[in-house]
Design brief:
Keywords: DNA-binding, Transcription, Transcription regulation. The chain is an all-alpha fold. Helix content is about 75%, strand content about 0%.
């Protein structure tokens, strides 16, 4: 059990080190030697878990989807808003999110699918639920709007990163939603929605991290 736990911790150290390197340098300029230095592991240890730089980058993109979650008790459309604010928060505070975003924008699609697929699917589902509940306008096409929201957020965060390293990102996301909501939400629902976010994204991130840590512990025991 102790050996399994060490293996899980080693893998986590490698992923976190690689995330910081990919976020800083991008995929092509990321050096394996720098990842090893930051992770403080041997080359053999790294290749035991990740046979290539490609597999390590893919692991980062796979894991970034677990950084955000749907908060309980919120309406479907407010949940879509909260997800963008959570991601805005983790882009400032988590190298894994920054690395995954940079790799995505660079077009590092190793498994043949684009990395926004899960976000598209979740947003599509929530918009469809909002339509069923009368919160989202009937003429809205959920998939089309989901892809627009994700694409708009991506552009907003890029501008924020270029201007001031995302220090104002949450404010820019609120502005984004103030422009989007009138074309998506039923007029009666707009007054109940909060484009600036209704929950604390830091608390949501902490809960997500706790769940991830629990999964790691279970994996160490049963893996």
């Amino acid at each position: 059990m102790a050996k399994q736990a060490r293996a899980v911790q080693t893998r986590r150290s490698i992923v976190e080190a690689a995330a910081s390197v990919f976020a800083e340098y991008g995929y092509e300029r990321a050096a394996t030697s720098e990842i090893l230095r930051r992770a403080n592991v041997t080359k053999g240890a790294m290749y035991f878990h990740f046979p290539s730089k490609e597999s390590l980058a893919q692991a980062i993109m796979d894991e970034q989807t677990g950084l955000v979650s749907v908060e309980p008790g919120l309406s479907p459309l407010q949940s879509v808003i909260e997800i963008t604010h959570q991601f805005a928060y983790v882009l400032r505070h988590d190298a894994l999110a920054r690395a995954g975003t940079r790799l995505s924008i660079e077009g590092v699609f190793f498994n043949g699918t684009h990395p926004w697929g899960d976000w598209f699917d979740l947003t599509t589902r929530l918009l469809a639920e909002g339509q069923e509940q009368g919160e989202v306008l009937p003429q809205v096409v959920p998939r089309e709007t989901a892809e627009f929201v994700v694409a708009t957020f991506t552009g907003v965060q890029l501008v924020s990163e270029a201007i001031n390293r995302r220090a104002d990102l949450r404010g820019r996301v609120a502005v984004m939603w103030r422009h989007i909501l009138p074309s998506v939400a039923h007029p009666a629902a707009i007054s109940r929605l909060r484009p600036e976010g209704a929950t604390d994204p830091a608390a949501a991130t902490a809960r997500n991290a706790a769940r991830a840590e629990a999964d790691i512990e279970v994996g160490a025991v049963t893996g």
